[in-house]
Every structure is written in C-alpha cells, then in structure tokens.
Amino acid sequence: MTGFGKAESTNDHRKIMIEIRTLNGKQADVIMKVPAVYKDKEPEIRNELINQLQRGKIELYITMDDESDKITSQFNEIAIKNYYRQLAVISERYHIPLPSDILNSIIRLPDALRLERQELSELEWQMQFEGIRQALQQVNDFRQQEGLALMEDISNRIRLIESYIEEVEKLESQRIDVIKNRLRQNMVEYIGVNIMDQNRFEQELIYYLEKLDINEEKVRLRNHCSYFVSTMHEGDGTGKKLVFIAQEMGREINTIGSKANHADMQQIVIQMKDELEKIKEQLLNVL
C-alpha cells in the first residue's frame, strides 16, 4: 500500500530531513539514499524498514542542508616529500629543471591529499534513528487510513453482491415458469400436443429443472461474502486469503450465470461480476 512519512531534526546547526515513501508490492524492495556518514548504518536502517513495513517498494531519503563541513582535508606530508625527492632525482639525472610550480603538480598526485570524514557519534545516530521511526509511524498511519478506506469500499461492494442475490431470488419463480413454458412450447412444436406423453414430460421437466437449480450456489455465495467480511477484520497477512475467497465467489457467480437461462437474471449476474472485479482490483493494493 502507498504511504508517506517525513521527519526533520537539527544537529550542530545542521538540518537533517528524512523522507519515506512506499508503494504496494509482494516482496520487500528497499531503496536508500543516505549521506556517506550514514553508510555504516544502512543494514540497521534496512532491518528497521522491513520490520515496520514488511513488504512493498520502500524508498528512504536522508538529506542534509549542509554536509560539506563533515569532510575535512589534510595534506599528506610524507607522500608529498617522497614525490618531491623522486622528481628531484629524475631532474638531476636527466638534466630536466623542475618547474617553479612543482608543488601544485605534486598535490594533485594520488595520496597527496587525504580526505577525512568525521565519525557519526552515537548520540547523533540515536537522534536520527528516532527521526526514521517517526517517519515510519507517519507511513503506517497513512497506510492505515488508506486501508480503512479500502475496507469500506470493499464492504460496500460485498453488500451490493448480497443484495443482488436477493434480486436473483425474486426472479426464481418467474424463471421456472419461463423455462417450463419454453420447453412445453418446443415439445408441442416438434412432437405435437396429441403425441406428447404428459407424465413423461413432467418427469423430464423435473430432471431438467434440478440441473438448473441454483440454491446451493446462492448459499455458498452468501457464505463466501460473510467469510470475506470477517477475514478483512482479522488483521495483517490476509491479502492472499481474501484473493482466494474472491476466486471462490467468482466460481459461484459464474455457475449461477450459466444456469440462469433468464435474461433479467443474467443481467444481475453481470452486475455481480462487475462488483467482484472491482473488489479484485482493490485487493491488488493489499497483497
């Protein structure tokens, strides 16, 4: 699920900003961009991000308004002396005069200038780690709000599907009459009313109507809807379970549609399918 968190702190007259962004994903994919002074702390930061957020694409950005004075430079006097002595020997041996600005050339050579980075103090690190936790709390609050909105939307769609089951039931008697009349008309048309065996016709009609009975599908679909809603309130780790329940709901809806043999009922089935597809789209945000 998407989320955003931000925290700021000030240390040694330096502002430090922490931002965390998340997107939905099945696995934990962590991207961190932090100042070099925090590089040694990356494993600890990564573990905290995964422990708090569990999965998804997680981006962490730590920036400083001024990091330049964190780095100090110092000339390596020993290296510069060695460079000069070697150049002096070469100059004398091959009669090549040394230029007046030889020092400018030497300090550009490797190891002539040492860059030293100040170590991160434990007190400063604890302060920044607390800032990361504050940003993570904002992310979780953001995700929780989004989750509640998704739950409300999905619950409304589940209630719609349940209301469509009631609409299907209202058409049951009409559907049976339509099927009976259609079969009777076909029998009369192809066989003739005088030849048709009424008792045999009634037997075959009962057998045929049993094949088209949707009571079991309606019961199972209602149970799936109820189970789906209760599962949503179980807490973390229910995304895949909800997907499986939605798949079972789809099977029952499809079976009702295949048995309907009634135009108005099939239209209701299409509406059920439409709501179920919207539920599946929302579930992609919680997998």
Structure description:
The protein folds into three domains: 3-67 and 121-141, Imidazole glycerol phosphate dehydratase, domain 1 (Ribosomal Protein S5, domain 2, 2-Layer Sandwich); 77-111; 148-283, Four Helix Bundle (Hemerythrin (Met), subunit A) (Up-down Bundle). The chain has helices at 42-53, 77-94, 102-106, 122-170, 172-190, 198-211, 215-232, 239-260, 263-283, and strands at residues 3-11, 14-23, 28-33, 56-64, 71-75, 113-117. It is 62% helix and 15% strand. 16% of the residues are buried. It is elongated and about 130 Å long. The model has no long low-confidence stretch (mean pLDDT 85). With 287 residues, the chain is an alpha+beta fold. The chain contains nine helices and six strands. Helix 1 links the parallel strand 3 (28-33) and strand 4 (56-64). The termini are close together. A four-stranded mixed beta sheet has the order 1-2-4-3.
